[in-house]
Amino acid sequence: MRRRHTSQDDLRAREFEAYVAGAGTRLLHTATLLTAESPDDNPHARHLLTLALAHTYAGWHRLRGGDPYAHTRRYLATRFAHDAWRRRGGLFPSRARPGGPLARLSPQERLILVLRLHEGIAEEQTAALLGLSAERVRTVFHRAMAAVLRPPPGPAPAVGGVEAVPS
Angle CA(115)–CA(116)–CA(122) in degrees, nearest 5? Predict the structure, then answer.
C-alpha cells in the first residue's frame, strides 16, 4: 500500500512540474504586472506567485478535470487584492513605488486592468471573482485605461537624442 501512495505522489509531482513549466512564465508576468515591478527585479511578484503555486499544489488532487491555470490565477488575484487591502498604502508603502505605466494605478485598478486585458477575463467573471458589481468593474477599468493612456506629467522624453522644445 505504501508503494501505491508513493507512485501517486510521484505522478502528482510530475503533473504539477509539467503544469508549472507550461504556465509559470505567464503567471509570473501576470504577477509582475499586478505588483507593477520591473520584470528584472520583481521579488514581490515572485513571492505572490510562489504562494499561488503552493496553494495550487496543495489542492492538486481536487483539480482533476478542472483548470489549474484558472485556479492559480484566481488565488493570485485574490491574494494580491487581500494584501493590497490589508496594507492600505498600496503594496510598497515603505519604499518608492516601482516604475512603469501600471505603477501610477491603484492596486484595484491594476488588478482589474490585468484581469480584463492581459488575462482576457470577461467583465462579469472579473466582477464575480472580486466580489464587485459589473458596473463597478467597468468604471474602474475605464478609469485605469484613461490613466494608462494619459501621458505622465512632466517634460516629454527625448526621442532619438532630440529633446522636446518647451512651449
Answer: 110
Tens of pLDDT, residues 26-38: 999 999 999 999 8
pLDDT in tens, 40-53: 999 999 999 999 99
What is the rounded end-to-end Cα distance, in angstroms, of the chain?
80
What is the chain's alpha carbon radius of gyration, rounded to the nearest angstrom?
19
Amino acid letter, residue 5: H
Q: What is the pTM of this model?
A: 0.79
Q: Count H helices, E strands: the chain?
A: 6, 0
d(CA 127, CA 133): 5
Sign of the alpha-carbon dihedral angle for 112, 118, 31, 10: positive
SS3 sequence of 9-40: HHHHHHHHHHHHHHHHHHHHHHHHHHHCCECC
Closest CA to 113 of 82, 68, 144: 144
Query: How far is 51 from 18, CA to CA, in rounded Å?
Result: 18
